[in-house]
Amino acid sequence: MNSSQTSAPAPRRAARRAGLATTAATVLAALAAASAPAAAAGNTATVGQRSPEGGRGCAVVYFDLGETLIHTEDDGSLHYLPEAARHLRELREADVEVGLITNVPPEWGETDAERAAKLREIVDADWTGTGPFAWEDFEGRILTPRTVEERKPSPALFERGSGAADGCHVVYQGETAEELEVARDEGYFTYAVGREGAWPAYLPVPVIEAIAQLP
Question: What pTM value is reported for the model?
Answer without folding.
Answer: 0.78
